[in-house]
Structure formats: C-alpha cells, structure tokens
Specification:
Elements lengths: L2 H13 L4 H15 L11 H17 L8 H14 L3 H19 L5 H26 L1
Bound molecules: protoporphyrin IX containing FE (HEM).
Protoporphyrin IX containing FE binds next to helix 3, helix 4, helix 5 and helix 6.
C-alpha cells in the first residue's frame, strides 16, 4: 500500500476516534436498512458485533505499513465469514454502505481521495478474507 493512501486512512480513522463505535453502529443500521436480506446472517448481539468490527478495523489500520503479520488473522476471519454464509456479492454491498457511513461521519473531510483510500484498504482486506475462505475449503 502506498504511504499516502495509508496516511489518508490512518488520519481519517483517527479523526473519528471518539465516535468509532457510534459510526460502526450507524453502519450496521444502514446495512440492514439497505439490505434487509443480510440481517438474518447476524445471529449474535449487534452491540458486541459492532465492538468486534471496530477492533478489527483498529487492527487493520494499525497494520497498514506492515500488513504481513495480520494476514493470517484476516484469512481466519474470512474463513469464518464463509461459514456465516457471506458471499462475494455481500462484500460489495458491505463496502458501499461502510463508505457511506464514514462519509456521513466525516462530512467534507471525507474527500474523494479519502474515500478512494478506504475503498482500496477494504478491497485488500476483503480479498484476503475471501482468499482465507478459499484456502479453508481446500
Ligand atoms: C472488511 C470486511 C469485514 C470485516 C473486517 C469483518 C469483521 C468481522 C468480525 C471481526 C466479526 C466477529 C466474528 C469473527 O471474527 O468471526 C464478524 C462477524 C460477522 N460478519 Fe463480518 N466483517 C467483514 C465483512 C462482512 C461482510 C461483507 C458480511 C456480510 C454480510 C459480514 C457478516 C458478518 C456476520 C454474519 C458475522 C457473524 C455475526 C454473528 O455471529 O452474529 N461481514 N465480522
């Protein structure tokens, strides 16, 4: 990942430090409003899910300059997602709503450059997750 992209993601994530949980809770609300068919995949408590998702994003963002050590973790999480019934198309739905939630939180600070930096990070993480899912079935 180029350092500029990493910096845009790191700085924008830092800007929402105090409201990360709120932003991610808002994300799940938006996700279920836009894609009600995804709601039944989530069997557990959504507050707990929100906390786990924030923690995972923290891990991803803190590893942007040196992602290798977290690849195995991301692959394992990806393999579990296949078990939850998450398919390729779901990753696309998730991405669009996630970026919209960040846009709503950051307003004008969510510039097109910041959006595209996050889109790149999401694409890499979700590709690694799907790779983990593939490897798990072979
Ligand atoms: C970058 C993408 C994503 C990340 C980082 C992420 C992260 C997480 C984490 C950390 C958990 C907690 C449980 C575990 O570790 O297995 C989880 C659970 C889950 N995620 Fe994701 N996720 C992503 C994409 C998706 C997508 C695209 C869907 C599709 C709807 C999805 C659906 C779920 C479901 C259904 C659960 C289980 C919830 C439950 O047990 O109630 N996730 N996710």
């Amino acid at each position: 990942m180029n350092p500029q992209t990493a910096a845009l993601v790191r700085d924008s994530w830092a800007e929402i430090t105090p409201i990360r949980k709120q932003v991610c809770a808002d994300f799940y609300q938006r996700l279920f409003a836009c894609h009600p068919e995804l709601r039944p995949l989530f069997k557990g408590d959504i507050d707990r899910q929100t906390a786990l998702f924030v923690t995972m994003l923290n891990t991803v963002v803190s590893a942007l300059d040196n992602p290798e050590p977290v690849v195995p973790l991301i692959k394992t999480v990806g393999a579990r997602h296949a078990d939850y019934g998450v398919g390729d198309a779901d990753y696309h739905k998730f991405a669009a709503v996630l970026l919209d939630s960040f846009a709503a939180a950051l307003g004008e600070r969510f510039t097109p450059q910041v959006r595209s930096a996050w889109a790149q990070v999401y694409a890499e993480v979700s590709a690694t997750m799907r790779q983990g899912a593939e490897e798990a079935v072979h």
